[in-house]
Protein: Thioesterase
Organism: Sphingomonas psychrolutea
Amino acid sequence: MSDLAAPKFASHIFQVAIDAADIDFMGHVNNASYLKWVQDAVVSHWQRFAPADAVASHAWVALRHEITYRKPTFLDDEVIATVLLEKVQGARAFYETIIKRGEEVLAEVKSSWCCLDATTLRPARLAQGVIDKFFAKD
């Protein structure tokens, strides 16, 4: 990788579970359910790549979600969320999550999160060694 190339972060596939309670009066998944899926997918991504001690000593809170809905999702759909950490800046992490049914993109989500010290609940920067765990291995 050249010095000018953007870092390549490891993506994470998260199987989305659709529950009957996710379905709204129009017969498809309610918009609020997508937020829960993104939260579950991002936390799963963190738990997959971060060392156990970092998982135990940090917590994450969402700061912002920007969702672009492409197609409706239904109860019997098989849905996955692909999570990609775009960058870490200070105590903030910026994610992209793509929610798909097969090859169809159902929603695209840009979100930012704040890392907290699990004890003090104050913003905490991650050690570079922890951040490096999220880089894709070529």
